[in-house]
Amino acid sequence: MRNVCVIGGSRYFGRHLIELLRASGARVTVVNRGSTAPPDGVDHVIADRDDEDGFSAALAGRTFDVVLDQVCYRPQQAAIARRVFAGRTGRYVMTSTMEVYDPATSDLLRPSRPGVAVTERSVDPGVWPVRPVHTADEAVDYAEGKRQAEAVFTRDPVFPYVSVRSAHVLGGGARDFTGRLAHYVRRVAAGEPVVIHRDPFPTSFVNDREIAELLYWAAGAEFTGPVNACSDGELSVTELCSLVAARVGREPVYQVSGDGHASPYSFDRYYAMDNGRATRLGFTFSKAAEWLPDAITESLEA
Predict the structure, then answer these.
(1) Does the pLDDT of residue 133 top 70, yes or no?
(2) Among the listed residues 80, 82, 188, 55, the one whose alpha carbon sits nearest the alpha carbon of residue 133
(3) What are the sequence ranges of the domains in the chain?
(4) pLDDT at 156
(5) Matching CATH topology for 3-168+207-229 and 176-204+232-272+288-301?
(6) 34-89: per-residue pLDDT in tens?
(7) What's the fold here for domain 176-204+232-272+288-301?
(8) What is the pTM of this model?
């Protein structure tokens, strides 16, 4: 990869990804709307991806070996990118999400049986229905938007395409702008109750550096189609809290939700991914239980 375009990705694991690309010697072009400055040492193109004419004009004369799309949320954004980058890139990698598998967001999906993690075959973008969307402001559910975006890129492809379906991303300290890990660290350390479901089920996680490494790997590989990205080992919200408790020296206090709403990462259904395809293709995952203690320590220090 000599010439790489990253759409979005100026913070959190996107910054790790750019660091990996730069360290490899690649020329990196970051495209965003200008609200966040990219890391030093990259080309910066300011453009609104929802404005097709402006997006295309801003990239006029540029071609790329790979495009890494960190911020594609809707099918119309995928359709615009498909037209703009046709003939301009040799490969396209979209950051997707494990939420594409969530049966709570689509009547077309069935819940996983406990202990049977979902594989990429559970949601086939080649046959997933795409609802016509006419304006950039038209509302589309986050998970459904990702599913339909994948479908737009997959059908009648104009370049080799990969979707990386990321597990819940956890990182320590100020890197994690979501504040979700910090939520648990604060509450357990303060002795405040963590709201959970009566019988919380496990889910999948990935470290912020590991997802960057997988995206970098996917950019330089040759496979196409969806790939699950999660660290080895499933964890329930109570197991996560136990790891936090071991670091803060205080046992967690739980409060069972009375209305179905609970803390992030508490699920009333089995919600985990199988990373077997990526493993067979050559990526080596870490174990979630091994990196989480360090991430918790970073949150404590922050």
Answers:
(1) no
(2) 80
(3) 3-168+207-229, 176-204+232-272+288-301
(4) 86
(5) no
(6) 877 877 889 999 999 999 999 999 999 999 999 999 999 999 999 999 999 999 99
(7) UDP-galactose 4-epimerase; domain 1 (3.90.25)
(8) 0.94
pLDDT band at 276 (very low <50, low <70, confident <90, very high): very high
**For 3-168+207-229, CATH number?**
3.40.50.720
